[in-house]
Amino acid sequence: QVRLVESGGGVVQSGGSLTLSCTASGFTFGTYGISWHRQAPGKERELVAAIGWTGKARSITDSVKGRFTISRDNVKNTVFLQMNNLKPEDTAVYYCAALLGGYWGQGTQVTVSS
Question: What's the whole-number mean pLDDT along residues 6-31?
Answer without folding.
Answer: 97
